Amino acid sequence: MKLKNITPFQEIKDKILEQIPPSLSPYLPKKWEKIGEVLIIKIPKELKKFSKDIAKIYADVLDCKTVLEDIGGVSGEYRKPNVRFLYGNPNCETIHIENGVRFKLDVSKIMFSSGNMDERIRMATISNSKEVVVDLFAGIGYFSIPMAVYSRPRKIYACEKNQLAYKYLCENIVLNHITETVEPILGDNREIAPKNVANRVIMGYVKDTHKYLQTALDALYNKTGIIHYHEACPNELL
Q1: pLDDT for residue 61
Q2: Helix crossing, 8-16 with 51-62: angle to 10°?
């Protein structure tokens, strides 16, 4: 007899229905974000009293050590995730592998958007060995590290203000064996970014990005080069 392949969600649903009323099954989260060994899910109010049991089953099926509940996106200047611990190991530090690149981070304290994967992959190969790059908002190395791994530019100056993100940036540079390519710099990019050196500037930030445009222009060599300007656009302007 040939067994049918079932999706992870179907397996989750089958196991959870042993513990919750069938009438609640439509509320089960069909989407989740898996970062390394840490899972982030949203629990609707109808399932709140079953949160721990649901989290355990999601962790077992999706092979995760920790489950966090998304309780409200991100907040603050450093875009800290608003999450609540649900199940597993309370240590939320993990190594996420994407496109062959290793990112170490604490998922409960540092944002990592899987939805930006295509852009990270695209940016990884747009530079070349002759370029100098300045990344004004490096974070844990979202763009700098893939670019260093795949494009091997002459130098990348990776600026980061958040001390925790900077810590992981430094660790990720070592993890990916690119210490000769990427130079991390701690501080506000308006004060510490190199000037008159870059062929390419990365502005991977989507809040008040325009306030840092002069810093990007100052970083360009002879005011000539490419600026990757990321910004959030209100729906009414689309």
Answers
A1: 96
A2: 140
Q: Tell me the mean pLDDT in the region 44-49.
A: 95
CATH of 117-237, one of 3.40.50.150, 3.10.100.10, 3.40.50.620, 3.40.50.1010: 3.40.50.150
Q: Could you tell me the CATH superfamily of domain 8-91?
A: Met-10+ protein-like domains (3.30.300.110)
Q: What's the predicted TM-score (pTM) here? A: 0.91
SS3 4: coil
Q: What is the token pair recorded at 30?
A: 């069909």
Helical (H) or strand (E) element with 185: strand 182-186
Task: Please give the full DSSP string across 104-158, using - where no structure is assigned.
Answer: EEETTTS---GGGHHHHHHHHTS--TT-EEEETT-TTTTTHHHHHHHT--SEEEE
